[in-house]
Amino acid sequence: MKSRMYVALVFGLLVVISAVAAAASGVEEIPVTTSNEQALADFMKGQRLLDVGRPQEANKLFEAAVEKDPAFSYAYLNIANSAASAQEFKDNLDLAMEHIEGKSEGERLLFEINRTFLDNDAEKRIKLAKTLVEKYPRSPRAWLTQASMQTTLNDIEAARKSMKRALELDPQMIAANVALGFSYLFSDPKNFTLSKQFLARCVELNPGEAKAYENLGDVHRAMKDLQRAREYYSQAHEKDPTLSAASIKMGHINSFLGNFDEARADYDAGIAGAKEQNKANYANYRAFTHLHAGNVQAALTELGQIVNSIDGIDIPNDQKRSAKIFTLTNQATIALHHNLLDDAERILMRRAAVIRASAERVGDQDFARQQEANILLFEGQLAARKGDYQTARAKAEKNRALLEADSNPRKFEGYLGLLGLVELLQGNSEKAVEHYRKANLTVMYVKYHLALALEGAGQTYEAKQLFKEVAEWNFNSVGFALVRKDALAKIA
Known about the structure:
mainly alpha, two-stranded antiparallel sheet, Serine Threonine Protein Phosphatase 5, Tetratricopeptide repeat
């Protein structure tokens, strides 16, 4: 860390990514400022890995770059962008700022864009992204940055236009094809045919990259062609046996097919081959097999064992806290969903303590405030499940007050989701529908609850359409594992 803090002199060497190709195509990329050619080489390799979807491997190369050039602001920024914890994100964002003097306008704008994720200023984020595109109108990466920021606001139409502009500027850009493929895969309106087209292009452009085959497996999973998806995951694993995510995804498929022993074997293989920082998170999905099988207590027990094991994993403390928060959040969601309220209360107390410890270490007031707002949402759910609707509403209003000043049009989605739950549990279906329509419907668990509210309000046609969308989602999470079987029953 001391070597990072050393302020190296920057001799004004402004290196433009892919200069020869840029000159030939008219592309003008965001400059990368460094005086060290070896640091630049590490950065470029890391950027390529980040583009194909390997952030952890990219992170190591960005770390190597700042070891060679301790004033490499852009590399610190990319360490933040590939970070495994909030603390790592904030620490490296601070280092990027510390060394931003003398760097390009594009690098400064990228830093300021990322800083808005701490204070939740989405409106500023979009303005900065627009400025970046105006400054570098022929930079594919600038357009992709704008697309990413537009996606955070769920402005999918605008995001896709930005992605397509990036692809027009550089038709061979892996990151642009991946971005469009995932946009059509995960964001409404979805189009799996187009998603497959863009992700298949990644295989054509880089046939030796295992992640490209893994991504195609995801498309086929969405298209309900689970056997074909499994074949692509198998291909990915054959090309790179260290790509443990492919084994994990084969476990998802076996979970959906009801092959629970096979699923656990897949998960065990993926966990065994995973990097230390991934093991606990991957183990969560193994626990979800019990939810798919209908054994709630077994899932809670296994998740509890995972939480208790995390301190024994050889990873930094900030990553341990992140893994605990992920696991405790899943465990609490299960207990709340099944009204195991004593368990839920105990888990939520433990979760809040870890979140607050993480926020204290990050040391940012805006970040800490948002974490308190998140804690209130879960406390509100607990109160609502207990039938204490007055307390649940009070928790919701405290959440709203904490986020009131944020410049983000999506800031109240969690608040509205909690109000929707309060009304749904009281049988006020029409009011629940009103709230849930404004909640975060990119989350299938929330969309499922909107469907329940619609069903209760007599809007059965729309309810059934949403139940169908949820049932056929085929992307594993604690929420999906909790509601998939019921959603399938609703459309049977």
